Amino acid sequence: MTDFMGFTPETIDFLWQLRMNNHKAWMEENRERYQTLLKEPFDALSYQLYTRFTQEHPEFPVDYSVSRINRDVRFSKDKSPYKPRKWMVLKEPGTTAQQWKERPVLYFELMPEGYICGMGFYDSKPQYMRALRKRIDAAPQIFARLAQDMTQQKEFVLYGDKYKRPMSTKEYQPAVMEWYNRKSLDLVAESSIDDLLFSPDLVSLVLQRWEAMLPLYAFLRKTEIEV
Questions:
Q1: Burial of 119 by CB count in 10 Å (0-12 exposed, 13-18 middle, 19+ buried)?
Q2: What whole-number distance in Å separates Cα of residue 200 and Cα of residue 3?
């Protein structure tokens, strides 16, 4: 696989055009542009991120998955056939698509407006969140330090729907409760279109952002649903 040399302004143009022309006829006319402007550089980026992460962090065994451009429209009201965005995830080895979507992953996503580096869940389940709250209850001081570190930084934002009522009667720090009371978790650093997107240095930036989330990722990854 070729090295990632950066995306191009034409990559972003293609994503905008796909969003405005999301139908099969347009894609068939622009299939070669999709390959050269989006798929090939994104595959190269994904492979380099995976390779460098596994080399630099062997304590976190992972493999990776890259999104397809086609949408699954079988159960969706939106019948547009393509995704005007592309993402990749670092996931736990050997997990199927359904399994890793319910587990914490590190991810990168490219869209017409910019790009995202994140850590979270595609589809977290109540059973996992209950197991996570149980782990926090067992080690509140450890999790408090992790949560406080993320609260003090300005780069990442925590997303995820919250429960309407508190999920614990215990007096935890506000930083802990921001995590404890959520139905799902997604820690995100968002960037608009910038020069790094068009540079090989994007690889190092994504890795740097992932590394800032690794202590929390490790805590989440060790959380297991009790059978």
A1: buried
A2: 8
pLDDT in tens, 77-95: 777 899 999 999 999 999 9
pTM confidence score: 0.93
CB 27 within 8 A of CB 18: yes
Burial profile 153-168: b = 16 or more Cβ within 10 angstroms, e = fewer: eeebebebeeeeeebe
- The secondary structure of residue 108, as a DSSP letter, is E
Considering only CA atoms, give the Rg of the chain. Answer: 19
Range 9-221 has CATH code 3.30.930.20: yes
3-state SS assignment for residue 188 = strand
- For helices 40-56 and 202-221, give the axis angle rounded to 10 degrees: 60
Of 18, 70, 7, whose CA–CA distance to 40 is shortest?
7
What whole-number distance in Å separates Cα of residue 141 and Cα of residue 219? 13
CA geometry: angle 103, 107, 108, nearest 5 deg: 165
Compute how many other C-beta atoms are within 10 angstroms of the C-beta atom of residue 3.
Answer: 10
Work out the angle at residue 176's Cα, subtended by the Cα atoms of residues 170 and 180, and round it to the nearest 5 degrees: 75
All structural domains of the chain with their residue ranges: 9-221
